[in-house]
Specification:
Strand order of the largest sheet: 1-3-2
Distance between the termini: 17 Å
Oligomer: single chain
Number of helices: 7
Shape: elongated
Low-confidence stretches: none
Helix content: over 70%
Length: 223
């Protein structure tokens, strides 16, 4: 059973990565008809929403894009920052969706930001405790590991509405501001949906891992 659960979790993770990479590669080959770069897209959305104070920064990596609410910076990977593709438009607008959430005090974003320190601690200590419990056969320690996994799961669940809402805001903005043409909407929507669904996969794998750990802990109790 443990092996089956691990395999299911592994397949969900791999499938979600294949899906997002496939949509990214597909939309990264389609040039935006209006020739906006990711940076220009972000700047236009931010300015039109009263966020001229938010900076846009080019960062290294692929799909390493993120919004930094502490420093008010939209970080875009080089391909997105300089690209004139539908992938660049989609990703840049999504990160701007988070900036708009931040400005409007979007509830789930505020909750997520407030528990980040706790989640960081739980993610660091959780697997250490789990590994110690398995190596030493002190399986009762697994319940502490399960608690840390539940904290991470809570964070992931709160992240779901944050990501889907940011994608919805992004699509509305690029339509409203005529950054894309109507015939480009389907591709952008697909890319935004794929990005959000990776977080659904994260929730699913966390649930399976928690269930697997509970089975391990309960099996030891029955000995």
């Amino acid at each position: 059973m443990y092996t089956i659960l691990f395999f299911i979790s592994f397949m969900i993770t791999i499938s979600s990565q294949i899906y997002i990479n496939s949509k990214y590669n597909e939309t990264n080959k389609i040039q935006n008809n209006n020739q906006y770069t990711g940076k220009e897209t972000a700047r236009k959305i931010l300015d039109k929403n009263g966020l001229k104070n938010v900076k846009i920064k080019e960062v290294s990596g692929t799909l390493s894009d993120h919004y930094d609410p502490q420093n008010k910076v939209v970080n875009l990977s080089s391909d997105i920052y300089n690209g004139r593709t539908l992938a660049a438009i989609s990703v840049a607008s999504h990160e701007c969706g988070h900036a708009i959430q931040d400005k409007n005090g979007y509830l789930f974003l505020r909750i997520r930001s407030s528990i980040v320190p706790l989640v960081n601690f739980a993610s660091k200590i959780g697997y250490i405790i789990i590994m110690i419990s398995i190596i030493t056969s002190m399986f009762k320690l697994i319940w502490i590991g399960i608690l840390t996994e539940l904290i991470i799961l809570l964070f992931q669940i709160i992240t779901l509405p944050v990501e889907f809402n940011a994608s919805n805001r992004a699509l509305k903005q690029i339509e409203k501001l005529n950054i894309i043409n109507p015939d480009e909407k389907k591709e952008c929507s697909g890319m935004l949906r794929a990005a959000a669904l990776t977080y659904v996969a994260g929730v699913a794998t966390s649930l399976i891992e928690i269930f697997r750990l509970i089975l391990i802990a309960r099996s030891d109790e029955r000995r």
